[in-house]
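HUMAN: Ready with one sample?

ASSISTANT:
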Amino acid sequence: MKNNYNRFLSVAVILLLVTNIVLAGLMIFGKGKKAPPKRQNVFEQVSKEMGLDSVQKRKYDSLREAHFANVGPVLDTIRTVRQSLFNLIQGQEINDSLANHYLDIISQKQMMADRMTLNHLRNVRQMFTPDQQEKYDQFIQKMVQRGRKDSSRKKK
């Protein structure tokens, strides 16, 4: 019995030793890897890609600040109502009429936020020169498509 206990302890010590060696190796050799570069914020990207002058930068920044001040409360409402919606799963039965009410509010508020964003993008576009507008149109398309996978392109 003592022989089995010693064997178990030996195996446990060896496993712990191997684990420590592997972790130490990962820490030492993993240091050469760099974190992916941070993305520029949208303000910097727009300023750089459109070649904004100082007047345009100030106007763009004020439009952006006004947009976030207007759309922020709408997005906060969406988050709050969505939380209330998902709190419904805690009950034994889901009240369909209450769930539909929450879903309607979310849909209306999301439509409002999207409309506000569309108007903001239009207002920003109007402050550009024709050449900048063309670049801006391409930039917006790139932003809309980034990180999104088309569901029709799923591998089967």
